[in-house]
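If you are new to this repository, start here. Below is one unmodified record pulled from the training split, so you can see the exact layout before writing a loader.
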Amino acid sequence: MCMNISAVIFDMDGLMFDTERIAIKTWKKAAEEFGYSVDEALIIKTIGRNSIDTKKIFLASLGNVFPFDEIQQLQVKYIREEIRKNGVPIKEGLYELIRSCKRHDISMAVATSTERKRAEDLIKQSNTWKYFDVIVCGDEVLNGKPEPDIFLTAAEKLRVQPDKCLALEDSESGIIAACKAGMIPILIPDLKEPSKEAKACAYKICNTLREVLEIIENA
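And here is the target side for that same chain:
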């Protein structure tokens, strides 16, 4: 496989860090504190989405009386407590992939739907902050994934053409966004089995980041 890769753009939750499982647990816990039972399938629907879209998805299912903002605030508190107690759960192959990109002089960015404060906290705690040239967050673009804004912004900040960017995603909305951006989308599924649309968007489907490492080494 011969590819001209100038940059690798990483999603964060579910791709770099195994945080989606924590998100499900903490959403359910926070909702219960307010007397609500939230189905896991509903939470999984929000994977890859920014806070605005997540709120729309919750309210469409549970109604406008659902106190989303208050529950989300508590859910974020629970996530922070979990990370503080157990550390950032790192996805298999992340550090090796980052080091490989560095060796090959490939620029790196994070393009995450998560808001800036939480994203920075996680990246710094994972000891990967120094490797990334650019970090773009969900609260910094007009349209969240599956629209391509966040990926196009990352490419612009890196000063790299989108078609020279390898975009790594675990979610359906993310892989569609990368495809719309004209990048080389690599899908590494996490909690959700990819749909036909997601599979069609992906240049390649990998089981772990270690398989992406092989793409970099052979590019």
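Two things worth knowing about this chain: The beta strands are 7-10, 107-112, 134-137, 165-169, 184-187, 204-205. The chain has a mean pLDDT of 95.
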